[in-house]
Design goal:
globular
């Protein structure tokens, strides 16, 4: 992609981002998935960075978006989860609640060792480890 076309795409995406509101989940999904597409195809993170910046700047946007988007965490790709973890870095409780909901909905439990281990490790690392388990099962 030539530089001029890339700049026009970025400007267009920025205009889409301006229209995103904290309570419009369908718009949030659209821009999130477009940014993930650019990341996957072009290996450019600038669109993802715009999404993270916008979502974290809107009051309760991350709190509303993440649980809905991760409703079925086992279908979430690892790059997508990485972005969501980055987006939720200051609100780790959101990720923990998503995991608890997933476990409850699938009649799973966290054993005592895992519960103890959670207190000793970074929550983001723990979420990634559990995500890999969900994909395998």
């Amino acid at each position: 992609i030539n530089a001029e076309y890339g700049e026009r795409c970025l400007k267009y995406f920025e205009s889409l981002m301006e229209a995103v509101k904290y309570d419009n989940y369908s718009n949030q999904v659209y821009v999130f998935e477009e940014a993930m597409f650019v990341l996957a195809k072009l290996k450019k993170k600038n669109f993802v960075d715009l999404v993270i910046k916008k979502f974290t700047s809107l009051a309760s946007c991350t709190k509303n978006f993440v649980p809905k988007y991760l409703n079925d965490i086992s279908s979430c790709t690892t790059p997508c989860l990485d972005v969501i973890i980055e987006m939720s870095a200051k609100e780790e409780h959101i990720l923990i609640q998503v995991l608890i909901n997933h476990l409850e909905n699938n009649y799973s439990v966290i054993d005592m060792f895992t519960r103890l281990h959670t207190g000793e490790t970074d929550v983001c690392v723990f979420v990634k480890q559990l995500h890999l388990c969900f994909i395998k099962s």
